[in-house]
UniProtKB/TrEMBL annotation:
Protein name: Regulatory protein NPR5-like
Membrane topology according to the record: Peripheral membrane protein
Signal peptide: none
Pathway membership, UniProt: Protein modification; protein ubiquitination
Entry's localization field: Cell membrane; Cytoplasm; Nucleus
Domain of life: Eukaryota
CDD domains for this protein: BTB_POZ_NPR_plant
MF (Gene Ontology): transcription cis-regulatory region binding; zinc ion binding
Taxon lineage: Eukaryota, Viridiplantae, Streptophyta, Embryophyta, Tracheophyta
PROSITE patterns for this protein: ANK_REP_REGION (PS50297), ANK_REPEAT (PS50088), BTB (PS50097), ZF_C2HC_NPR (PS52046)
Alphabetically ordered keywords of this record: ANK repeat, Cell membrane, Cytoplasm, Membrane, Metal-binding, Nodulation, Nucleus, Repeat, Ubl conjugation pathway, Zinc, Zinc-finger
SMART domains cross-referenced by the UniProt entry: ANK, BTB
Organism: Populus deltoides
Length: 481
């Protein structure tokens, strides 16, 4: 047996002690209402924090964000002492103990496992928001409990994640690295944010002002370095800067016009000034900030791509409407051929977003950021997008059937059964969510309102299944946002 094999065997032996729960355990922690059994000698040997906790005259503070100390329940010599842990979650605490017992741990969540903040089914969780959040929580726990080896391991993991993560998650890691003085991770994230091209006013919504100033410093140094390497391009760079300033002015004028519902001015800007509505993210802005009528008028100009994917995340206007839980916006976008199957960079569709919101609402009772969300609106949004996906599936099935008649294939039976099962799953999923949300809505809004809304939504669903693009089908749901 080699030295490596011997160490691996030792690591597994210690880890089995943790897995076996109460075997030889002499300390118990309570985390999120669940008991975790451990061994004082191992924890004290591996962590100075636990050594002070078990051996010092006063237990160390810092586990609870409010500043409360670790308290034991029972007498000092009792084997039934329970130590409440309030600063970290159950999953993160187990990862911490796993590292203390075995010297190794996998911070990446299990692939294809349903996770909070990840709406993609079958995600590998290598760089999604859920994976980044777990790594950040693990890093905070490692620093809190004084396990520097785990902190360094997590820092390296985060450095790999941010290379492919969304810019929102990169900014989240940037703030954490600044708070915990992790200079290497700070450097990596700050350069990624500087290269993102996001203007300072957007960065200021997510980052402290002094951090935004440092990002702008990096950009300035980078541009100066480029100019010093290419002096003969000075005039060209000046021209590019002037053109960029002109485009920024156009976009600001466009937003003011949309805010005042002046779509005619936007039309004149498109025709006379060459404004590109897609690059200006006009439709995304209108969906998020304007009324249904403005969005409809903008779409009817015919100059905006309803499926344009914007920003580092690659969201379409339909993604934004789904996040807002706005049936009016969802309806008008679908009426103008928005594709419910378009995926973001992380592989999330508008249908995934609505399913995640529905799941959170049913099992948690409220959705963060949407505390006033009405269950009937969520149900209607889900029905509209679900119906549109079913229509597209049928259309694709008809096209495949036609091509199969022209070019016969050996796998006809398999394709037919597969598409049929997909449609069956969509129908079943729609009915189940419809019933569940109906029950949730009746508890909040009263049975009479729920019955009236149910009949309206049933009529709406029938109309949508027959004709997806009828421009009058959503008229009675019109609201201004």
């Amino acid at each position: 047996m080699t030295l490596e094999d011997s160490l691996r065997s030792l690591s597994l032996d210690y880890l089995n002690l943790l897995i076996n729960g109460q075997a030889f355990s002499d300390v118990t922690f309570s985390v999120e209402g669940r008991l975790v059994h451990a061994h004082r000698c191992i924890l004290a040997a591996r962590s100075l924090f636990f050594r002070k906790c078990f051996c010092g005259p006063d237990p160390p503070s810092g586990l609870d964000p409010s500043g409360s100390r670790i308290n034991t329940v029972g007498s000092p010599g009792s084997r039934s002492n329970v130590i409440p842990v309030n600063s970290v979650g159950y999953e993160v605490f187990l990862l911490l103990l796993q590292f203390l017992y075995s010297g190794q741990v996998s911070i990446v969540p299990q692939k294809h496992e349903p996770r909070p903040n990840c709406g993609e089914r079958g995600c590998w969780h290598t760089h999604c928001t859920s994976a980044v959040d777990l790594a950040l929580d693990t890093l905070a726990a490692a620093r809190c409990f004084g396990v520097e080896q785990l902190a360094m391991l997590t820092q390296k993991q985060l450095a790999n994640m941010v290379e492919k993560a969304s810019i929102e998650d990169v900014m989240k890691v940037l703030i954490a690295s600044r708070k915990q003085d992790m200079h290497q991770l700070w450097t990596t994230c700050s350069h990624l944010v500087a290269k993102s091209g996001l203007p300072p006013e957007v960065l200021a919504k997510h980052l402290p002002i002094d951090v935004v100033a440092k990002i702008e410093e990096l950009r300035l140094k980078s541009s100066i370095a480029r100019r010093s390497l290419m002096p003969h391009h000075h005039h060209h760079l000046h021209d590019l800067t002037s053109a960029a300033d002109l485009e920024d002015q156009k976009i600001r004028r466009m937003k003011r016009a949309l805010d005042s519902s002046d779509v005619e001015l936007v039309k004149l800007m498109v025709m006379g000034e060459g404004l590109n509505l897609d690059e200006a993210l006009a439709l995304h802005y209108a969906v998020e900030n304007c009324s249904r009528e403005v969005v409809k008028a903008l779409l009817e100009l015919g100059a905006a791509n309803v499926n344009y994917q914007a920003g580092p995340a690659g969201k379409t206007p339909l993604h934004i409407a789904a996040e807002m839980v706005s049936p009016d916006m969802v309806a008008v976008l679908l009426d103008h051929h928005a594709d419910p199957n378009v995926r973001t960079v992380d592989g999330v569709t508008p249908l995934d977003i609505l399913r995640t919101l529905t799941s959170d609402f049913l099992f948690k009772g409220a959705v963060p950021g949407l505390a006033h969300m009405e269950p009937n609106k969520l149900r209607l949004c889900l029905e509209l997008v679900q119906s549109a996906a079913m229509v597209l599936s049928r259309e694709e099935g008809n096209v495949n059937a036609t091509s199969t008649l022209i070019y016969p294939s050996m796998s006809d039976e398999h394709n037919t059964s597969s598409s049929g099962s997909n449609l069956a799953n969509l129908n079943l999923d729609s009915r189940l969510v419809y019933l569940n949300l109906g029950a949730a809505g009746s508890g909040q809004m009263g049975s009479r309102m729920d019955e009236e809304d149910d009949s309206n939504h049933n009529n709406q669903r029938d109309h949508h299944a027959m004709s997806r693009h009828d421009p009058t089908m959503y008229h009675h749901h019109s609201h201004d946002f």
